[in-house]
């Protein structure tokens, strides 16, 4: 967020920012969603809705899981939330108590850690580097002193983009079931992958898991603030009550419009974005390698490259701010994602325009000699 603020200031003063820091698509919602939102303004009151979401959207999401993964979902298993961020808060409150231990990968999405700690949970981070393709392993779980209350797996993950293999996820899901650990599968980057690995829905492996989805990433709708969970029935009542008390309901206009996000027309438009991300990814992979930045996470999916630049700096907060000042290129320092090792890493988001990738690499090439510390 500090980088975003500095980048916004730089844009105001210089007008030359290339934003590779923020983790969001640079495109609007698909056209059918925009049309549906306009129609919703005319046709609906847009007051409060049911606290866990409107039935037609639940039906649409349940149907999408059948079409996309062959997983049968009862619409009553779907809880619509205010972004996946809203889903995490509700689920953590529903499933965990103060003092419970929840395990996650490091590097990982920082809000899991921050929210869990704010709720009084103990967060145990597993160091997941290139040797485990930045994903937790069964061996790491088996080495824990006792089974945790929860385990969060994100695949594709943020900040590295790696996808966990189906067999590895199946083994972890079985271990969680056996040990009474709630597996929380963050699948919000599903749809954005580059063909080397499966995107497995955890519900195709274990119905005891919680699956998290969102319209923010693949669906290109970050600011619409809509996400969802698939939850085992035992959480139904408590999530219902938490949802109505915490947020009353997710945004009404977003819910009505999002029904159109799952149509073939929308999916075709969104797949077009993924093609651009693939081109951008290849440009950055090649360009960064040519600049000697070669220790890059595999980026099987999502739209991030996580780069180890320990040969350039041991303080990427400072390096990123000097990069911004020298070139207008904004990248995210790794420290948020990994408080232990992130000071030597940066994350670059390649969801923007392809021309921006070329421009960023050109500016980086010219500035690199001046940025050495
Ligand atoms: C892995 C992961 N999970 C969850 C979120 C939260 O997304 P949202 O609340 O927009 O659905 C993000 C946002 O960047 C993320 O990277």
CATH architecture level-2 label of the largest domain: 3-Layer(aba) Sandwich
Oligomer: single chain
**Bulk shape:** globular
Share of helix, binned: 40-55%
The CATH homologous superfamily of the largest domain is named Type I PLP-dependent aspartate aminotransferase-like (Major domain)
Counted beta strands: 12
Measured by DSSP, the beta-strand proportion falls in: 5-15%
C-alpha-based Rg, rounded: 21 Å
Which ligands occur here?
Answer: pyridoxal-5'-phosphate
Please give the CATH class of the largest domain. Alpha Beta
Overall pLDDT metric = 96
- Major β-sheet annotation: 7 strands, mixed
Query: Runs with pLDDT <50, length 5+?
Result: none
Topology as a string of helices (H) and strands (E) = HEHHEHEHEHEHEEEHHHEHEEEH
CATH topology-level name of the largest domain? Aspartate Aminotransferase, domain 2
Secondary-structure-based class equals alpha/beta
Number of helices: 12
Overview of this protein structure:
By secondary structure, the protein is α/β, with parallel strands linked by helices. The protein has twelve helices and twelve strands. Strands 2-8-7-6-5-3-4 form a seven-stranded mixed sheet, sandwiched between helices. A three-stranded antiparallel sheet has the order 9-12-11, with helices on one face. Helix 4 crosses helix 5 (about 110-120), helix 10 runs parallel beside helix 12 and helix 11 (about 315-325) packs across helix 12. The longest helix has 27 residues, at about 265-290. The radius of gyration is 21 Å and the shape is globular. The structure holds pyridoxal-5'-phosphate (PLP). Pyridoxal-5'-phosphate (PLP) binds near residues 23, 84, 85, 188 and 222.
